[in-house]
C-alpha cells in the first residue's frame, strides 16, 4: 500500500516574509540574498499576499534598457508599494494536505509556490522546486 505523505514532510519552514509596509528594494534584496523566487506578505503571521521575483521584473522593465540598474530599480521601486505589486487572494494549503493534492494545485492553477497555513497562521511555503526534489529522491 502506498503512503501519501503530507506536505509538511517537504515544505520549507525557514520562512522569509515581508510586511506590506516594507519596500520593493528590500524585497529584491531578500530574493537575491536567499536565492528565492516567492515571498509571502504577512500582517503579523497571517498571509495577505504573495510577491514573486517575476512581479518585480515586470515593473522594472527599464533594467534591460539602462546601464545604471541600481538607479533605475530605485526609481521604479519607489513608484510602487508591495501592496500594489503583490498578488492578493492567495491560495493556501494546510500542512496536512498531501503532496499529491499540492502538486495538482500547482499544476492546474499554474502557481509556482503556495503558502502553507495552519489555524490561519503561516507555517511554511511549498514550491515546485520542493516537489521536484521530492520526486528526484523517489527515483
From TrEMBL:
Secreted recorded as keyword: no
UniProt keyword terms in alphabetical order: CBS domain
Gene3D superfamilies: CBS-domain
Span of domain CBS: 11-68, 86-139
SMART domains assigned to the protein according to its UniProt record, in alphabetical order: CBS
Pfam families recorded: CBS
Protein name: CBS domain protein
Taxonomic source organism: Winogradskyella arenosi
Lineage of the organism: Bacteria, Pseudomonadati, Bacteroidota, Flavobacteriia, Flavobacteriales
